[in-house]
Amino acid sequence: MFAKDIGIDLGTASILVYVKGKGVVLREPSVVAMDKDKGTLLKVGTEAQQMLGRTPGNIVAIRPLREGVISDFDMTERMLKEFIRKAASFRLFKPRVVICVPSGITEVEERAVVDAGIQAGARRVFLIEEPLAAAIGAGIDITKPDGHMIVDIGGGTTDIAVISLGGIVESTSIKIAGDQFDEAIIKYIRRKHNVLIGERTAEEIKMQIGCVFPRPEEQTFEVKGRCLMTGLPRVFTVTSSEMIEAFEEVSTRILEAIHGVLERTPPELVADISTNGIVMTGGGSLVWGFDKLIESHTGIETHVADDAISCVAYGTGKSLEWVGDMQDGTMNISRRKQMNN
Ligand SMILES: Nc1ncnc2c1ncn2[C@@H]1O[C@H](COP(=O)(O)OP(=O)(O)OP(=O)(O)O)[C@@H](O)[C@H]1O
C-alpha cells in the first residue's frame, strides 16, 4: 500500500528509474512524441525514439533534455510523470523521489527539476549531483577522507569531480559527451566521404567501431547514407582508425577538462587519486579505449566501472537511504550533508 521510494537518473540520453528493493526497473530513452495540433502526448521512451526523424507534419518527437539540462520544461514534466507511473504503481501514497542532476546545474534549473518531480506525482523531491551518485553507484565509499576522481560521460554532459568526505571538492561539467561523438561522426563522414548520415546511424557506428585509442585489430562498418553529390543512397565502409581522427577534437576537450580539475585539486587529494585511480561511468565512457587514453595522458590508472550506464541510477537509488529521516522540503543531498557537518 505504501509507495516505494524512487531514484531517477534524469539523463539527456536515457532515463533510468530505480525502485527501492527492486533495483533498476526502467531504462528508456528520454524522448517524447507529441501531437502538435491537439497538444496530446502520444508516446514516451523507446516507442517515441523510433519516431525520431520519421514523423509526419502533426507529430513531433523531441528530446526535452538537451546538454544535460531541461530545455523543455512542460515535456520533461509529462515524461517524468509517465515514467514514474510506469515504474511504480501508487494510489494512496505518493513516493519520495531522488533525482540526479548534473553538477553544473543552476538554481533555476534545480527548481525546474524539483517542480517537474512534484508535478509528476512525487510527495517530496530530493536532488543529488550526478558525480556523487555515479561514485556511490560505482561502489566507492564517498564518506571517507580519501580522494576519488569520477569521470562521468553521459549523453549531453561530462561531469568530472574529485570527491572526498561525502562532498565534491573540485569539479567541472562540460557540454561535451556521447552526443558530440555522434555529431563528430556525422561531420567527419560529410567532410571525408561526402555522405550525409542520420543521428541513429552515427550512434550505431560509434558503438560498433568507435574508438579514441588504437584498437588491437582494425574494425569496419558498412555505412548507408545519402550522397551529397548525387542525392542518391550510397553504401561504403568506414574503419575504426578513421574514428580516432573523427573523435580527436571531442576527446581532447574531455582530456583538457580532466587535466584542469587535477590542476585545481589540493595535492593531498591528487596523491589519493594517483593511488585509487580514476573511475569512469556513464554510457559515453564505453567508447572504446577512453580509459587507455586518459591513462596515457595522466599516468593515472583508469578503469570503467561495472555496468557504467546504470551507475548513476544505482547511486541515486542507494542515496535514498540517506534521506531516510529528512523532513519536508526539497534539498540537495550534498548541500544538506555539508550543512550537517
Ligand atoms: N556501448 C557504447 N559505446 C559507446 N557509447 C555508448 C555505448 N552505450 C551508450 N553509449 C552512449 O552513451 C550516451 C548515454 O549515456 P548515459 O545514458 O550515461 O547518458 P545520460 O545520463 O542520459 O546523459 P547525461 O548524463 O548527459 O544527462 C549516449 O551518447 C550513447 O550513445
TrEMBL record:
One of its GO terms (cellular component) is cytoplasm. Gene3D superfamilies: 3.30.420.40. Transmembrane segments: none annotated. Its main location: cytoplasm. Keywords: ATP-binding, Cell shape, Cytoplasm, Nucleotide-binding. SUPFAM superfamilies: Actin-like ATPase domain (SSF53067). ATP binds at G155, G156, T157, E203, E204, I205, K206, G283, G284, S285, L286. It is found in: Cytoplasm. One of its GO terms (molecular function) is ATP binding. It holds the Pfam family MreB_Mbl. One of its GO terms (biological process) is regulation of cell shape. Belongs to the FtsA/MreB family. Forms membrane-associated dynamic filaments that are essential for cell shape determination. Acts by regulating cell wall synthesis and cell elongation, and thus cell shape. A feedback loop between cell geometry and MreB localization may maintain elongated cell shape by targeting cell wall growth to regions of negative cell wall curvature. Forms polymers. This is Cell shape-determining protein MreB. The lineage of its organism: Bacteria, Bacillati, Bacillota, Clostridia, Eubacteriales. The gene is mreB.
